[in-house]
Every structure is written in C-alpha cells, then in structure tokens.
DNA sequence: TTTAAATTTGACTAATATTGACTATTGATA
DNA sequence: TATCAATAGTCAATATTAGTCAAATTTAAA
C-alpha cells in the first residue's frame, strides 16, 4: 500500500528502533546488506530524514570498527538546541525545511498539535505566497525565528 | 445521468473509495492509465474537486515511491462562523483589527492563550517587517484567512 | 448565437530516489 | 613511520515520480 521505496522502509526501520532507545548505532555496510541497497543509500536516508531539522544528531566514524550513531535531540535538557535551530533557519528557509522542524518540535512535545497546525498554516507557501520566492523564504525565516525564540524563553 | 466527462468519472471513483476509508493513496500515472487520460488530468480533478473547501486535504510526493494522498477532513460544528470572519478580513487587514479578532477568538475559547499569543507575535508589524504598509496588510490578511480556514476543521 | 467557463491535452518543470565511482578517515600492522 | 585494510562520505548521473501552465477543445450560460 504505502512506502514502496527503500528509503522510506529504512527510515521506518531505524525509527522503530529509536522508539525504544534514544540512540542507535549501526554499521553502514550491514544496513545496506540488510536492505539490499548500495551503502550510500544509507547516507541518503540519514541526510534526508535524520538531520537536525528532524530532531536527530548523527555522529559517525570511519575505519575499522566504524559506525553511524543516531541520537534523538532532547529539546528539554539541551537548551542550546533552539539556538542551533535558529542558526539553521538563518535568513531564509523553505517550507519543506520549516515543516520538518515544526514536525519534530511537535513530536518532541515542545509544541501541541494545534499549535503546530496553526504554524504550518501560517508558513505555508500559499499563505506567504509572495511574488518573489526569495522574499517568501526570508519572511518565513523571520517568522520561524520569532517562534523559536519564544519557545526558547517559554519554559 | 448527466455530464459523463472523464473528470466527473474520476471524481466519482475516488469518492467511492473515500466513502469507505478516510484516506486513499494513489499513483498519478496508474490513475491516468486506469482512466485512459493524461496524468495531468488527475491534477485537474484533484484541484477542482478535492480542495479544502470541499473537505479534503491532499498531500503528495514525487520521485521513486511517489504518491498522491487524499484525506477527508472533519469540519467543526459551527465552521461557517469562520467563513464569515474570512469575509470580514477580506484582502487586507491592519494589525489593530486582526488583534481584535484574535482576542475575541481567545475569549470564545477557540484559541488558547498561547496560541493567540503565537499568532499575534507573527502578525505583528515587526515580524512581517515589510517596507510597504499596503503589502503588509495584504499579507496579514492572507495569514489570518489561512488561520481561520485551518480552524474550520480539526486534527 | 455569442460568450464565458470548464475540460482536455501535452510539453516543460521540479522534486525525490537510486546507483556507483571516487574520496577521506581511521586503526592495525609491517 | 609507512602502508594497508576497513570502514564511511561525497557527488554527480540517471531514474522515477508528480506539478505547472497555457493552448486547444468542448460545454454551458446569457
């Protein structure tokens, strides 16, 4: 029915493990073998689904005994995370990236569902819809930074 | 037995499936093949018959394993109130007027305090920060209307 | 009948995923 | 120290989807 592509399947697999522990460690080549794909596909999945916007931190090591470690961001304890997100937003952000960020803030229970929904409605492409896409992304960045700053000082 | 154009037939087909489940996932090219039409006709049907006003939300993904997902939405009891507010907002609204509207939505317990504050922070002059005041009011109107549209349904 | 709106079509565009050749890093060993 | 083996990373080409837009056509309304 859904997720016919390998990337989604790998993502689900990793997230199902992460649902039980806050951190996992994998071997890229083993993963590739398990899912019958090329090793670089694992990088693709990690880069597109386990980045900071998505609420994950990834560390890795090459060479013998190498690994890829994926860790869930702890928004409650890790206070600087908001600053990091603010710097990721920078002066300009696409809806897609902002969407990921809001989604992970909801999943981490920093935002309620209805707050997240409201924000998404506001930063939607159709809402901002400025003739100039560049200007749109800049405006979205201002809105996102405003939100992140509020969250930072809220708790 | 009226107007049996392809668009209507596709619409009926999709709605007959949606009558049994709240959500369906299709592949554009498969649909096009099934109904012997060009793929973009599927977009036409979705844009004209499955928009938010009609009670549907559509999400999609391109690339390998791509899909189009159509989901029915649940309107809140008195959702037509929001339509009235939307027409009041019109094409342009000042911060002062928007503030009043958000305030009354809070007093009516449609919005929580933090939701109201969040919205006010976003539609503030400083956040929108557009040189042109006219443009600012128009943008604020679009944001307000999208918020109101979002409040018409839940989840 | 004339005009406006809705539908159909297809060329072009954009986003996402897959693959593999090449590169970089690390630790172990000669 | 130099080299090698065993990892992971990068990047660009290709494949696989869906989206956009406007011209052409058909249908409905005035």
Automatic annotation (TrEMBL), chains A, B:
Keyword annotations: DNA-binding, Repressor, Transcription, Transcription regulation
CtsR N-terminal HTH domain ranges (all copies): 5-74
An annotated Gene Ontology molecular function: DNA binding
Domain CtsR C-terminal dimerization: 78-149
Family matches, as InterPro entries: CtsR (IPR008463), CtsR_C (IPR041473), CtsR_C_sf (IPR041908), CtsR_N (IPR040465), CtsR_N_sf (IPR041902)
N-terminal signal peptide: none
Statement: the UniProt record of this protein carries the keyword DNA-binding: yes
Keyword NADP: no
GO biological process: one example: regulation of DNA-templated transcription
Gene3D superfamilies, per database record: Transcriptional regulator CtsR, C-terminal domain, Transcriptional regulator CtsR, winged HTH domain
Similarity remark: Belongs to the CtsR family.
Name the UniProt record assigns to this protein: Transcriptional regulator CtsR
Organism: Liquorilactobacillus vini DSM 20605
